[in-house]
Amino acid sequence: MATRRSSGLISVVVSTYDWPEALTLVLDGLANQTDKNFEVIVADDGSDRRTVEVIEAARVEPVHVWHEHRGFRLAEIRNQAILASKGEYVIFLDGDCIPRRNFVGMHRRLAEPGCAVQGDRIMVREKLTQRILTKKLSAGNWSLLTWCVQRMHRRINRIAPMITLPLGPLRMRTKQTGESALGCNQGIWRRDLDKIDGFDASFVGWGWEDSDVLARLLHAGVKRKYGRYATGVIHLYHDSLIARENRRLLDDTLACARVRARQGMSALVNSAPVDAALADSAPVDSQQPLELVK
User: Fold this and answer.
1) 279 part of a folded domain
2) pLDDT tens for residues 101-147?
3) What is the spatial distance between Cα 83 and Cα 269, in angstroms, rounded to a whole number?
4) Which H or E run includes 10?
């Protein structure tokens, strides 16, 4: 039987906080996609006016979903972005991860009912990150040869995510676990996000909220699908500090096989998403019909 794939609108949720220089390059990368049937939702964790200016200048005309900055609340703003989205399939991309030109198209090819696609990334070292940002380089268009040179000079951590391979059934030969999930590059069907009530806003601070989502998807019967050698993105350098409490929350999810978020999208369903321009908006019906092709 042929695998059914999405032929409809895809929603790309780009999370960001006060890094307009990086967001500019990410949105430029999305504007250059070969697959054009997608929308962009910028999930903004409370950035200042500079981010608004970047969004207003972007060629992809993003929807800007914003809330007041009260610490690292990525899970909650992603939930608001999901509620504001219109696509049947949602790709999560961080605002410091530059996509290649086939990023959306490859996610569409890998989208399969009952599966969540876990992509990967290369990590760019600090000096190359500064060069990309300062000169506004279109790193998403660089050739494999260029990336091999960067790897040879140790300006990136590895080269594999920049290689495309047709793995076929091998994409399901991955550990069915929520550990080490990368929310910076992840594709999930909207109906599956509804099933688990989205991200868990109990996760405050950086770390483990992505693994929690994937763990709850697995508990709900969704399979983890290998997105490597297809959907790799270019992750710019930044410092990180993991919130210890988040690990405890993840351990609790794993221990009790939790499916629905403690504090998920349903907690926001009666509140309209807020954008930085304070424009009127309304929640999108989460039970929208799906159009699939065989």
Assistant:
1) no
2) 999 999 999 999 999 999 999 999 999 999 999 999 999 999 999 99
3) 8
4) strand 10-16
The range of the structural domain enclosing residue 220 comes to 8-262
What distance, in Å, lies between the first and last C-alpha atoms of the chain?
A: 9
Residue 201: both structure tokens together: 């806003």
Residue ranges of alpha helices (H) inside the chain are 20-31, 49-57, 74-84, 103-110, 126-135, 144-152, 190-196, 209-219, 244-256
Nearest 5°: CA angle at 182, between 42 and 244?
A: 100
- Report the 10 Å Cβ neighbour count for 95: 27
Q: Is residue 2 part of a domain?
A: no
The overall pTM is greater than 0.85? yes
* Residue 198 is assigned to a structural domain of this protein: yes
Quote the tokens at residue 233: 């993105």
Give 183-233 as a DSSP string.
Answer: TTEEEEEHHHHHHHTSS-TT--SBSSHHHHHHHHHHHTTPEEEE-TTTS-E
Whether 27 maps to a domain, the answer reads yes
The rounded distance, in Å, linking the Cα atoms of 247 and 147 is: 34
Give the Å distances, CA to CA, from 37 to 11, 80, 83, 215, 223: 9, 22, 19, 29, 25
Indicate the number of domains in the chain. 1
Looking at the DSSP bridge assignments, the partners of residue 12 are: 40, 91
Q: In this structure, what CATH number is given to the domain that contains residue 60?
A: 3.90.550.10
DSSP β-bridge partners for residue 223: 115
For the segment 226-282, what is each residue's pLDDT rounded down to a tens digit? 999 999 999 999 877 667 788 888 889 988 999 999 999 999 885 554 444 433 333
Contact 190, 288 (CB under 8 A): yes
